[in-house]
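Bumping my old thread because nobody answered last time. Still need a sequence for this structure:
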């Protein structure tokens, strides 16, 4: 029971932290922070479905409804999943905090923001996307669902395409500063940053 409360609380807090960051940035900048693209709309739809399925599975959903597998070494996967959920959660919170008022949902071509390269952004150029993938993969290790895995693969591809578009935008917007940052820090995770 404690584990289910922990898993539900982490996911709900992750969602709320995202919402709070959006509201705080909107109030600070007094302008819309949400870009418009098919990829962004698809990512929001897939994320919402994943959230609903995981929260439903934690509370009442029968494992068969989400094509959950019975795997050998399930306890090992569950423990690894709990670790990844925790790491993904912390990584995401640090990413939201570090972005401050440069946070945007998608690309806002009419707004120029500061290039954030400090905090968690010293280790990943896209720590929020990375944290989301790690967090949800952790839940999948706990609830090994073919449906959730398929949704995460689709979402990860969508995120990657969004990242590629954002890299082009940041390169055009910040020029050499962003190019130097790209050389120092990996797209997803940098293990050794000198």
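Sorry it took so long. Here it is:
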């Amino acid at each position: 029971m404690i584990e289910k409360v922990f898993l539900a609380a982490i996911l709900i807090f992750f969602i709320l932290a995202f919402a709070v960051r959006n509201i705080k940035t909107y109030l600070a900048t007094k302008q819309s922070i949400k870009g418009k693209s098919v990829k962004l709309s698809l990512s929001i739809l897939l994320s919402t479905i994943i959230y609903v399925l995981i929260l439903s599975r934690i509370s009442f959903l029968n494992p068969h409804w989400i094509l959950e597998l019975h795997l050998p070494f399930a306890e090992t996967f569950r423990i690894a999943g709990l670790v990844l959920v925790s790491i993904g959660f912390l990584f995401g919170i640090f990413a939201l905090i570090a972005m401050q008022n440069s946070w945007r949902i998608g690309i806002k071509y009419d707004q120029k923001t500061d290039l954030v390269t400090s905090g968690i952004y010293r280790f990943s150029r896209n720590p929020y996307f990375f944290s989301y993938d790690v967090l949800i993969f952790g839940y999948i290790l706990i609830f090994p669902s073919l449906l959730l895995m398929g949704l995460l693969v689709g979402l990860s591809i969508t995120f990657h395409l969004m990242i590629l578009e954002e890299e082009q935008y940041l390169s055009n917007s910040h020029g050499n500063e962003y190019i130097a940052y790209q050389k120092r820090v990996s797209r997803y995770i940098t293990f050794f940053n000198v």
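The two ends are 44 Å apart (CA to CA). Let me know if any region looks off to you.
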